């Protein structure tokens, strides 16, 4: 059974750096084809994909946020870490991590964490 | 960037109704299209992948179709638990979600 859980601060100040950790079980991020992604959702708004890391340490970022994001993995700890610099109140959102599954026609996020709410305020 | 546009943004329907939600991509994405359901306060749930493949455990009243730029999600007979927000997502080039369609009880 695959599970993921996000952890990190609930409140950050503007201009600070946010660090979120996704701790997962039920799969290995060293297995070919596996990936873990981060997605966020501001209150009352749509989902926004942020970043993805693959089993081979390849990384993909949202073009609009690429300069502010870094995604890393610690395979031995079954964790994926997302950092976002220069936080702003518009970054207030629930942040999700999710397991990426692949198939013949693309890929999808089939298992999601419960999400963690992050508020950016002074 | 590939943009995804859903219509309608909101929809009112009754239990037992047949409902269709549309998603349009700004360029061809073949069948690299997924559908998710999200209920308030919960994480999204994958319903359909590769435009028309039903995710394991999802009721057969949900179906997806389309390819290229135009896609549809159909619920054949609405059940009370289906009232939620639905998102399409492309995986052709990185990932992009649509803006969502909120399905409400009439």
Question: What are the defining features of this structure?
Answer:
heterodimer, A: 122 residues, mainly beta, globular, B: 106 residues, 7-stranded mixed beta sheet
Structure description:
The complex is a heterodimer of chains A (122) and B (106). Chain A is mainly beta and 122 residues long. Chain A contains no helices and 11 strands. Chain A has strands at 3-7, 11-12, 18-25, 35-41, 48-54, 59-61, 69-74, 79-84, 93-103, 106-112, 116-120. In chain A, the strands form 2 sheets. In chain A, strands 2, 4, 5, 6, 9, 10 and 11 form a 7-stranded mixed beta sheet that branches. A 4-stranded antiparallel beta sheet of chain A has the order 1-3-8-7, with no helix packed on it. In chain B, a hairpin with a 5-residue loop joins strand 9 (85-90) and strand 10. Chain B is globular and about 35 Å long. Chain B starts with a strand and ends with a strand. The model of chain B has no long low-confidence stretch (mean pLDDT 97).
Compute the number of helices of chain A.
Answer: 0
Fraction of residues in helix of chain A = under 10%
The interface involving the most residues is between:
A-B, 26 and 29 residues
Query: What class would the helix/strand composition of chain B place it in?
Result: mainly beta
Rg of chain A, nearest Å = 14 Å
How much of the sequence lies in strands of chain B comes to over 45%
What's the count of strands of chain A? 11
Q: Major β-sheet of chain A, in short? A: 7 strands, mixed
Low-confidence stretches of chain A: none
Measured between the Cα atoms of the first and last residue of chain A, the distance is 40 Å
Oligomeric nature of the chains: heterodimer
For the report, how would you describe the main beta sheet of chain B? 7 strands, mixed
Tell me, rounded to a whole number, the average pLDDT of chain A: 96
General form of chain A? globular
Computed Rg of chain B? 13 Å
Distinct helical segment count of chain B: 0
Order of helices and strands of chain A: EEEEEEEEEEE
